[in-house]
Amino acid sequence: MIPRLSTQHLALIAALAETGGVGAAAQRLGLTQPAASHRLREAERRLGAPLALRRGGGVVLTEAGTRLAAFADRYLQELARLERDVEAARAGPVVRIGQATYNRYHWLPPFLDHVARAAPGLTIDLVGSASQHPLRALAEGRVDVSLIYARPAVSRRFRWRRLGTDPLVAVMAPGHRLAALPHVTSESLGDDRVYLYPVAADPGFEWEALLGAPTAPFRRVTTMPTPEAVIDLVRAGFGVSFLSRWAVEPECAAGALVARPIGPGGLPLDWWAVTRAEEPKDGPAETVVDCFLSHAPRRRTGLETLGFDDPAP
Question: What is the fold of 166-267?
Answer without folding.
Answer: D-Maltodextrin-Binding Protein; domain 2 (3.40.190)
